Structure formats: C-alpha cells, structure tokens
Amino acid sequence: MIEYQWINAERAEQPLLVFLHEGLGSVSMWRDFPKRLCDALGWRGLVYSRPGYGRSTPRPPDERWAPDFMHRQAYDVLPALLAELGVDRPYWLLGHSDGGSIALLHAAKFPQRVAGAIVLAPHILVEDISVASIAKTREAYLTTDLRSKLARHHADVDSAFWGWNDIWLDPAFRDWSIENEIRDIACPLLAVQGLDDEYGTLEQIRGIARRVPQTRLLELPDCGHSPHRDRPDALISAVSTFAHTFVLSQP
Questions:
Q1: What Cα–Cα distance (Å) separates residue 109 from each residue in 43, 176, 203?
Q2: pLDDT tens-digit profile of 168-192?
Q3: 229-248 pLDDT, tens per residue?
Q4: If phi over 0 gives left and psi between -120 and 50 gives alpha, with beta otherwise, what is residue 210?
C-alpha cells in the first residue's frame, strides 16, 4: 500500500507536479509546502510516501536496500504508482534530497513523460560530508528525541530510518553515482541547493549543470539541506518563474 494525497485535484486540465520526498520524509513531513506551491502555480499536485515511509507499507525487518534503491524507485515504483492513478499525460517532478536523485533518474529514463523537473539538494554522487552527517544522524536517532519526532510521520519509524541509514553508511554505497545517467535528461531542469547544506557541497548541483546544459541553478544563502523549509518564499517565487516560463512557451 502506498500513501498518497492529491492537491487541487479539481484542476484536471492544469499541469501535474509530483512531489518526491527526502530520505526520511513522508507525505506529512512536507507540511504545507506542496499546497502553497501548487496554489502559487495554479497547478495540481500529487504527494506520496515511498514504501517503507509514512503510512505506506513498512519495509520488512529482514529487507536491506541495495545501492540501486533509488534506481528501483525511479524506474519501477513511481511508474507503477502513476499508472495505477491514471496519470497519462506528461507531468512535472519536484524532488528533495534522495527524492531529487529519484527525480533525476526518472526524468532521464522516461524523457517523453517528464515535462520539467525541480530538484532540491539532490545527490549525484556520495561525498564525505554526506556520510559524516548521516553518521551523526544515526547517533542522534539512538541518543536524542529524534526517533520520537520522526515517529509522528511514520507508521514504522524504525523501518523508515534504518532502511535509509543502513544503505547510506554501507561501504558498498560509497561508489554510488548517477553522473552518467543524468546526461539523458531532456526536460527543463531547476537545481536548488542551500549554501549551508550539511549533507552535500555545491558540486552536487554544479555537477548536474555540467552534464545537463539546460539546467538552471539556484544557490540559496541562509539555507541548509531543506530549501522548502528554510527559504520557502524564495523557493516558491523561483519555481513559479521557472515553471511558467516553460509552460507558457509550449505550443
């Protein structure tokens, strides 16, 4: 079972924006940002929790994710969900962190389906800063109230946390990279990152721009790993300008 939520479903003729959450995210962890952005755009939205997260089916206790877990979400899970929900026209993607990487992979694999993409603090390779911060998050989960805070958003918080944390800290994951796959992205792409991102350097989005020439970059000051929480007004303004530029230019 996959938890999902429509936004402005009555706007059937408007573009659809699909939201892809971070490595510890869920429908509820987006809070009001999807609604605020969709209202600003005048679009519809679809928010969902990946398997293992939110109110979706938890990860089985003995299941360990492989280094290609984001590929599987991009190539298999997302297409199946969209087909089940009857999405049969090109759509836009907005992904955060792991969700940003999934959005990039999906856009590259299915260029005819994706009209445009916005990625917030995506990963295209594993950096030392990412591993160090994820190791600190593991310690916080074990020793602080982080677990109880996350439990508000996940039916099985341990399923959500350890699925993500174990694979990111697995030595086999250190060589993970999608630098070659993203070269096939054909749609308009906005890549956003905070200047104070504790999970990645600006090489993540600048590396995207070198490989996908139509990429536009937004580097936000006073912003960490979550632009939609740290700088929501600036992000909504930038996404609105970017998205409407390309929607209005389409025949």
A1: 24, 18, 23
A2: 999 999 999 999 999 999 999 999 9
A3: 999 999 999 999 999 887 65
A4: alpha
Name the class of domain 4-249: alpha beta
Report d(CA 11, CA 140) in Å as an integer: 42
φ/ψ (deg, to 5) at 215: -70, 140
Question: How do beta strands 215-220 and 114-120 pair?
Answer: unpaired
CA distance 204 to 192: 10
Structure tokens at 166: 């174990």
> Residue 165 half-sphere exposure, CB side, CA atoms within 13 Å?
19
Sign for the pseudo-dihedral over CA of 128, 157, 229, 99: positive
- The verdict on pTM exceeding 0.70 is yes
Report the pLDDT value the prediction gives residue 239, as an integer from 0 to 100.
98
